[in-house]
Specification:
With 176 residues, the chain is of the alpha/beta class. 22% of the residues lie in helices and 27% in strands. It has one domain: Rossmann fold (3-Layer(aba) Sandwich), CATH 3.40.50.2020. A six-stranded mixed beta sheet has the order 3-2-1-4-5-6, with helices on both faces. Strands 7-8 form a two-stranded antiparallel ribbon. The structure holds inosinic acid and magnesium ion (MG). The site of magnesium ion has 3 residues, from loops.
């Protein structure tokens, strides 16, 4: 779906959009593990201003998508009070993961929270989320590579591919 060149071009664009907004704000980039690992590391290397990084780890939810349960497994390490947060995600699908993470981060009183997602899978959104920086939108299919997994595999692909005939149920999001 996205070649290495596509990804580099996209990340350059996202980096300049983000720089325009927060270059003077000493932002903290919070990556959602594990999917955002590669995206985040490429993204921050395109940013030429002071920033800090942190990570959050959440459980993939189980059961029906409409009652998805998102649990925080690993907390951010540093205080984010009064900081401008860029939440970095690989892909927003139903929207429940980022919705829950934002509610959780808001309790820590950041100055602002903006979402940056490499991919925006629009067709199955259940919870509306405002994504400030979007790499690419698409509707259908289960994607892997560039940090994204299928049952834990394929994160190491340097491009983004679509799995043919992959199950679209939430258990396919398991994240070992
Ligand atoms: P949401 O909570 O339904 O928005 O799901 C978001 C999470 O599910 C992301 O952080 C991904 O880890 C995972 N996910 C959703 N769709 C895909 C996909 O097509 N490929 C790989 N992971 C996905
Ligand atoms: Mg993820």
């Amino acid at each position: 779906m996205l070649s290495q060149l596509d990804l580099a071009t996209t990340i350059n664009r996202l980096a300049s959009e983000i720089a325009n907004d927060v270059a003077d704000l000493n932002p903290v980039f919070v990556g959602l593990l594990k999917g955002s690992l590669i995206f985040m590391s490429d993204l921050i290397r395109q940013l030429n201003f002071p920033l800090t990084t942190d990570f959050l780890s959440v459980s993939s939810y189980q059961g029906t998508t409409s009652t998805g349960l998102v649990r925080i497994l690993n907390e951010v390490e540093h205080p984010i009070a009064n900081r401008h947060v860029i939440l970095v995600e690989d892909i927003v699908d139903s929207g429940q993961t980022v919705h829950h993470v934002i509610a959780h981060l808001r309790l820590k009183n950041p100055a602002s929270i903006r979402i940056c997602s490499l991919l925006d899978k629009t067709a199955r959104r259940l919870t509306p989320v405002a994504i400030s920086y979007i790499g690419h939108q698409f509707t259908d299919g289960f994607v892997v590579g560039f940090g994204m997994d299928y049952h834990g595999y394929y994160r190491n692909l340097p491009y983004v591919g679509i799995i043919k005939g992959a199950s679209e149920n939430p258990s396919a999001k398991s994240d070992p």
